[in-house]
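Notes from the pairing session

We agreed to fold both candidates in a single pass and log them together. This is the raw record for the first candidate, unedited. Please don't reformat it; downstream parsing expects exactly this layout.

Candidate A
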Amino acid sequence: MDRKNVSRIARKYNVYSGKLLGVLEDIQKEERYLSEETLKNVADVLDVPLTRVYSVATFYSFFNLVPVGKHIITVCMGTACHVKGAYRILEVLQDLLGVRPGETTKDGKFMPTTHDKKFTVSTARCFGACSMTPVVMIDGKIYGYVNAKNIPLILKEYGWGEKNEN
């Protein structure tokens, strides 16, 4: 995002406290990720060190530093989900979507994206939904009691399997 658009977003925030976080959130809502150029522009516009901007962007797991797909699928890998087969869920998602296991971003996150940029797969430590494990979240919507058989049905809600898909 260029300086002009970063400035437009920054003007919405009158209070210094939390301004950086709010600006980064708003930019990600528009751009779907925070590019290196964008982080530099945020530092310039807000007159804060780039290291501070980068620290905030990498501290919060909901920020993406690489382009992501239209739909973000996050598999909970917390203890309860792990015990109930979260790794199997992750394997099935990888197979169905055609993403390679172990692909990571520059900052070490597991976030492979399909070739058509429709889906990005990620993992999280815990969603706090341990009573309905294993749990998957897609675009903020929680799916509980997920198993290998219902993953295709869930993915179809987001256009998987339609023409020109993986």
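Candidate B (folded immediately after A)
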Amino acid sequence: MKVQILGIGRIREAFYREAVEHYLVRIRRYVPIELKETAKERTGRPQDLETAYAKVRRDHVKAGMPVALDKGGKAVSSEELAAWLEKAMLDGLDIVSFVIGGPHGLAPSALKDSRQVLSLSALTLPHQMARLVLAEQIYRALSIIRGEPYHK
């Protein structure tokens, strides 16, 4: 199984980029993972959100399990995410694709295209930090699946 993180907008701050890359390296010990970023949307207007999402839509929709990250999504624990990813692996899904919006969130079509909508937190997170939290949680879930001591 391959994992994709599709981000609207780019991570500009070096400290976020380095932290995300740290977890991507760790995740690659278990599964292939790819971070794809697009140019950010210009405004929060619906047509700009749709234009930004259109740049990653094809990758997201063709995934066996397209997932959107949105504040209105379902909150899951690390253990629940691990169980969910393990089931995806056992079901033979080829790609799990997580899409994270930019500063103005996701286009409505991104939510519609997704089979799951998850929330990372009830708190509002900068989109760069959301990518970091997601990468860490994917790593944590994979370590839980493997029975490794990272998750305490």
